[in-house]
Amino acid sequence: xxIDSVFVTGFTVSGENLFAGTSVFTGVYQSTNSGMTxxxxxxxxxxxxxxxxxxxGLGGTNIFAGCYSDGVxxxxxxxxxxxxxxxxxxxx
Length: 92
Known about the structure:
With about 90 residues, the chain is an all-beta fold. Helix content is about 0%, strand content about 50%.
């Protein structure tokens, strides 16, 4: 699925990467080239309502995604993997 065919609900920047949350159960998308192309970055099957970044205190960045009726997820590896922020359970 292409990002221009989904409804973007949140947007954030982490270094040179752009992240967009989508509300049609397609998760988070990532662009590494200023938005020219996008790839699905995780949380497929979830309706993402917001996506933000926060410094992790170790020189890196955490990415948080709030999902409709599904909790908050965190990625500590630039969107490669996601886990429940309060449970530690991993998700793709």
